[in-house]
Amino acid sequence: MEYAKNILETIGNTPLIKLNKLTKELPCLVLAKYETFNPGNSTKDRMAVKMIEDAEADGRLKPSGTIIEGTSGNTGMGLALAAIVKGYKCIFVISDKQSKEKIDILKALGAEVVVCPTDVEPTDPRSYYSVSKRLGEETPNSWYVNQYDNPSNTKAHYETTGPEIWKQTDGKITHFVVGVGTGGTISGVGKYLKEQNPDIKIWGVDTYGSVFKKYHETGVFDKNEIYPYVTEGIGEDILPANVDFSIIDGFTKVTDKDAAIYTQKLAKEEGMFLGNSAGAAIKGVLQLQEHFTKDDVVVVLFHDHGSRYVGKMFNDDWMRKMGYKE
Ligand code: PMP
């Protein structure tokens, strides 16, 4: 018989899938690392389990402990799956701009969810950074995950996602393009790929309203770059320790409108029903087309599933209300 001993054993080894219609004007092969095949429907399952295993190993997380994290949903999903299998409780702190589906899904997996306002400074006591930190200090036998600065996040992608992409492309990958939030995906995959072949270019996709692109180009943390935006999962108003700027060759910024429109296009033109950051990522690839030539192999990573966005990017009333559609 061939079976997984539990749901966590099905994480990773996701397929690489060729894009056809959306990329037809590009000279090169464009392949999607399709992370929704993970059991929690996102790449974050990989780092969630790795962060828990590393915390168990060095005693930060103890038997029947409570896992506390500020999460926009996908990390929470991965942590919740692992908590069920391994016997922990979860409290997640989430910002109020996240879709209702994401909150309901976390509750469905037995987690407690605390909702905080988005439009306050990270240092404000109401912000989701502050609230998750405080709950971590106040809750007995708890462990505050902190995916932004937790090195196990990057390590998970260095140990699994990066090697998978290298093997699946037979070492022929020339460019890796991915949305950046905590930075775990780009830094882990990017470091592994550059160690195999330093000529591979690593591109981050950023949003308008986020600090990454300007910081990478100038070394200046410019507060004027920070303002509310709609795109989910990528961009930050802080510099997480997991963003390794030294392995990133450049960033391209995608507008909220384009990210939303390309999320719909991926579904309608490629049959790829994916989340909002996948729309941003594929638009990022198209914006970078002048960097690609005939023999290039571009891999773009798609983080999560479309089901979490049915009330937003897949809802035409919402798209019209936002001014993204006539
Ligand atoms: N897309 C989605 C949907 C996400 O949830 C995240 C994680 N915040 C990202 C992209 C960015 O990935 P990372 O945190 O590894 O930079």
Helix-residue proportion? 25-40%
Q: Strand order within the widest sheet?
A: 1-2-10-7-8-9
Q: Can you tell me the CATH class of the largest domain?
A: Alpha Beta
Number of domains: 2
From N to C, what is the helix and strand string? EEHEHEHEHEHEHEHEHHEH
Brief synopsis:
This protein has 326 residues and is an alpha/beta fold. It has helices at 44-57, 74-86, 100-108, 128-138, 151-168, 184-196, 212-218, 256-270, 276-287, 316-321; strands at residues 16-18, 29-34, 66-70, 89-95, 112-116, 142-144, 175-179, 201-207, 250-254, 297-302. It has a six-stranded mixed sheet with strand order 1-2-10-7-8-9, sandwiched between helices.
List keywords for this structure.
single chain; 326 residues; alpha/beta; Rossmann fold; 2 domains; 6-stranded mixed sheet; 4-stranded parallel sheet; 10 helices; 10 strands; 36% helix; binds 4'-deoxy-4'-aminopyridoxal-5'-phosphate
Task: Provide a descriptive summary of the structure in words.
The protein folds into two domains: 7-37 and 151-321, Rossmann fold (3-Layer(aba) Sandwich); 44-144, Rossmann fold, CATH 3.40.50. It contains ten helices and ten strands. It has helices at residues 44-57, 74-86, 100-108, 128-138, 151-168, 184-196, 212-218, 256-270, 276-287, 316-321; strands at residues 16-18, 29-34, 66-70, 89-95, 112-116, 142-144, 175-179, 201-207, 250-254, 297-302. The strands form two sheets. Strands 1-2-10-7-8-9 form a six-stranded mixed β-sheet, with helices on both faces. The protein has a four-stranded parallel β-sheet with strand order 5-4-3-6, sandwiched between helices. Helix 7 (212-218) links the parallel strand 8 (201-207) and strand 9. Helix 8 (256-270) packs across helix 9 (276-287). It is globular. It binds 4'-deoxy-4'-aminopyridoxal-5'-phosphate. Belongs to the cysteine synthase/cystathionine beta-synthase family. Its cofactor is pyridoxal 5'-phosphate. Pfam families: PALP. Residues 8-302 form the Tryptophan synthase beta chain-like PALP domain.
